[in-house]
Amino acid sequence: MEHFLIFYEYKRTMRFISPFFLQMLLLLILTKSSFTQIKLSGTWRGAEIMDSSGTGAIFETKFKIIGGLADGHIKVESQNNDFYIRKIKGSKKYIELKLKESDLIFSSLKKTENKKTFELIYNLGTGYLESNYDSSRQSRIVLFQEDFSFNPKTKSIQSQNWVPSFIENYRSGISAPKKRLQELREFKFVPIYFDVDQAVILEHYHAQLVEIIKITKSHSDLRIQVTGHTDSDGSKSYNRNLSKRRAESIIKFFTKRGLRRDRIVIEFKGESEPVETNKTKEGKQKNRRVDFRFI
After folding, report:
1. 10 Å Cβ neighbour count for 147?
2. pLDDT one-digit tens code per residue, 129-187
3. DSSP string of 31-48?
4. Distance (Å, rounded) from C-alpha 119 to C-alpha 131?
5. Distances (CA, A) of 120 to 123, 130, 131, 251
6. Three-state DSSP class for residue 207
7. Taking the domains of the chain in order of start, what are their residue ranges?
8. Domain 42-174 is in which class?
9. How far is CA 42 from the centre of its chain?
10. What gap in Å lies between CA 193 and CA 282, rounded to an integer?
């Protein structure tokens, strides 16, 4: 009887909770759950980046997070090649990571600097850890996760060959390396469709094309193949030329926005490779297209 009364009260209460509220509550629970699944333990490196296009200190760190508590080491190298190594401790909550420097292991500085606290936010869109750093220099710290050998006993940052490309990629809006791999795995090509006898790119496809540019530029070993097509209206020679103009309009869009021409391969098939029948209006619309693939 007691169980029946509890169930009755539950149903009576739920009647007064709107479906919208329940959906938002479920979304909140799922969002918090997904945040807890973000794995930040490991090795990270990055730099102090200034709004004025300059760069400052270089950072390398390795930490492990267990039960929301972080423990590890950090190396910081200044522009004049002075550097120090400290232990770090901190905590993680959802996408927020707070790290505080503690015991000094080594310093080439004549004067020991005050212990710093870094309040980092994991950028879900780009995969970077970011934090405001020096307000007087209008700078921020940006770190990216990468597998490299980190030894707190080594009294230097071994190589800075990665710094120029990292800075360029970050300023160009390119995601962190591990995020790029995820973006590439999840990316799905969708054809660009054209109006009858036209090679003009419709505006609502621009965002899709910009995303293709971003993915291609994010991977130096990738090229993009652009293949133009038409429906069967008109002669074969005319349609072959029209398919070429459609592919060339995509190339012009890409190169105008910073993608090098040698990263693009062009093909034009005319009416020879339809994906739908040319006997219907809807089928012809599907055939007036440009396809893409990575090579």
Report:
1. 9
2. 999 988 888 899 999 999 999 998 887 666 788 999 999 999 989 999 999 999 999 99
3. HHHHHHT----EEEEEEE
4. 6
5. 9, 5, 5, 39
6. helix
7. 42-174, 187-294
8. mainly beta
9. 19
10. 12
